[in-house]
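Re-run with default settings, no changes from the original entry. Doing this only to confirm the output is reproducible before filing.
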Amino acid sequence: MPAKRPQPSAEEQQKSLAELRSLYKTEFDKGSKADGRPAFVTFLLETARKLRTDPVAQFVLYREAYQKALALDDLFTVAEVIDELERTFDIDGYVFRMNLLTSAVKAAKGPEERLTCVHFVLHMADYAQATARIEDLGRLAGMAENLARTVPGKDAKAQANARATELRRTVEEFAPVSAARQRLVADAADPAASLIDGKFRCFVQGDWTHGLPLLTQADHAALAAAAKQDLAGPTDAVKPAAIGDAWFDMAAVDPALAGAYGRAQYWYQQAAQNLDGLDKVKVEKRLEQIAAMKLPAQLTAKGDAATLASARSLLTRTKPLSPTDVLAAITPESFRTQGWTVRSNSLRADNNAFFARFQAPLNPTGEYQVAVQAVRYTSSPPCGPLVIGLPHWQSQFLVMIDVPTANKQYASFLTISGLRRPEDNPTLKTSNFTWLDVGRYRTISCAVRRREIVVRLDGQPLLEFKGDVSKLYLPKDWAVPDARAMFVGTHQGGLDIHGWAVAPFVAEDGTELPLLTDPQQIRNRTFLMNRLPGQ
């Protein structure tokens, strides 16, 4: 992965912004008006992606897109910009995410949105604590407490409240730490100051790299001995389990050193791989004990540096999207209505099934592309539609193919709200014949972007929508349990689904992926290389 570029200086950014305003005067003027702001955000983001050879201009355009989207409460776009910025530039992603979190908490209305915010807050609190951003802990504690009052589920409430209490305690504990660090500037070997700062780094932040050397010179004999043994590492005489025992026993005796359980877990995990008999049983039991304690994440990070999850995954509680063969990912638990049969490499919808829906076991977020290969196996009863349900930033919408009309034609369209008559739908296409013929395999590919939806049939454009995607909606008859999921469906359609794939347009490392026009492409080398581990 190429090295990240440094963030341009303020002077460079100011000069570049002036040049961009002059070059794209028309677009900036339209973007200054209320009705032109959403389209302007799209313009900024798309232009930023094109200007790879001008890093200063690219950064400025990303920054403008971030600020404008934040002002519009277009939080999915904000998350997307953060992730793209972070892939290319060396920025403080924590600050960007904190702004996103603040807006997300204010915008959260339903119970699921508030639950997502709880997880977001807890993740940011773990990172802030691990990286000594003490100034934000009180603010994060307040967010956790406020969300706990309305979030669904006793476990989530208890977790949020417990974490808030811990964060406030950390803020109180940091005052003597700050004073100790000032003393260490004057005398780097001060035993008392080393003890205070070393305990905070190790047992609160999980920063063993910097905390252990301080503990070796602390005026606490047991801690100093354990730290020296830890830094020396395993030897023929001292095994990993013995290093873990030293930390475990110390934490068991003194509750103030409970953070030492995290280091014991680290060494026990190293030891478990090479033990057998009673020694292995003892270590496994202690690992079970530690797991049951539910220690803060920074104390169980196996010595790794604290990392931030992608902004998109924090906002949506979904994993980053990677190229996925949806049919291969289906499990017996995947939601489906009556009328579906799961075969080895396909799905079959009974030709008498009403509003048959089959929900995918994953939720794409942001901009993405889907390809479905379908074949009609019967024309009796009269051919019903193929339905593809897709999520966008606000909710879900449908791609409808082969809907029978009153005048014996067939219609294809996207579902748009607020229309007085079906013929007012700007995406409507009609034909005297079905697009999906009996026995003929056809591929429908859908490109879902921020302000544009393009549907192709066998690679040729069929339907297109440009503008405010919040106008797209999901009719109640086609609702599925997960309002963020994609699905396929039919109504008396007699259809087989022989391929179903989904992929982002850009991989996590910034690599542009090919346009997905066939589900079988998902097996190509380019897509395979960009799958997440375990997929």
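The chain has three domains: 5-91, 106-299, 319-528. Residues 154-186 form the longest helix (33 residues).
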